[in-house]
Design brief:
With about 375 residues, the protein is an alpha+beta fold. The chain is about 15% helix and about 45% strand. It starts with a helix and ends with a helix.
Amino acid sequence: MKKTVRLISFLAGISITLSLLGFYVSRIPDTYNCYPGEDPAGSTFYTLEADAQTIAGNQEGSYTAKIKLFGFLPIKNATINQIAKKQLVVLGSPFGVKLYTKGVIVVDAEAGSAGVEAGIQVGDIILSYNNVEVRSNEELKAQVMQSGGEKQKARILRNQRSQTVWVTPTATEEGYAIGLWVRDSTAGLGTLTYYDPETGIVAGLGHSISDVDTGLTMPVDSGSLVTANITGVKAGEKGSPGELLGYLEDQILASVHKNNDAGLFGTATAQFTGVSYPIALKDEIQLGEAQIISTVNGNTPETFTIEITKINNNLSEHRNLCIKVTDERLLKITGGIVQGMSGSPILQNGKIVGAVTHVLVNDPTSGYGVFIEKMLTEQQN
């Protein structure tokens, strides 16, 4: 009897140990960044290993390394991105964006309509209709009106996968309809993070522009970053995020070619001047005092003090830094972080470490930031 109890206890102990080990392994990141010629940092409990030939052949790109628990037990592979040491022109100036989507986004659908019966859902992106590429609401409407009520092919994008559906428009007093409401563009206000003089790339916002109705990242067909002027501030309060108030101007700064979780990226069409700072990878960032550069009046950036309160080293996530505004002047003007400040560069110890992304709704003095290395990786990709 005692032997049976001991065996059960032993097996239970093994089960618990394996469960804890599995949880720990699941929390080990799959992506790491390092400077060329340097080894990526592991931890006390695991190492990252790749042969010298693999590393030497990928000095400016990515390679795969094995994650070994306790230095000898292979558990999974990791992607190592090598990011060149570089200087970025730090900005902090306001910008406006005019973004046109690749295809049109379905933002609402009438129950029982032709579009719904064909299988089209809210959040789908209609890329073409009747074998004609669709770039605007008007183009889709024109194709539907010309259908004569006959079944037509539509190519849609859902969860990054393309598929074909067949739609039979319904006759109406005005002609024909498929019962879908779609969006083809958006505009907004944000803050520029940096200009990369080596590539001519301008980056800002620190997070994607998403459709206001579906919450999905808007796919870019074309777009422009333009100058903007801040005319006022709606201060943030607990439960009510504030915002920068302003207007978009006519000067084009860059043509947008990418909109993703790390921000907006475009090719500069204007001259950018400012102070250059070296980049810092996540392992160089420390808890404690830092600065953000942002514009809360007109178009002149200013420096304000913040505190980095937490660092999330998982590069697969985008809320890498927890920050808290400590600058009394900024707190008096804005109440903390407000909409429109997204993209404000974060500096620490003379290096650019990231950009502001979000505000905490229940505490406008606090928010999140994304690592600068995350933005540079997305820029390279």
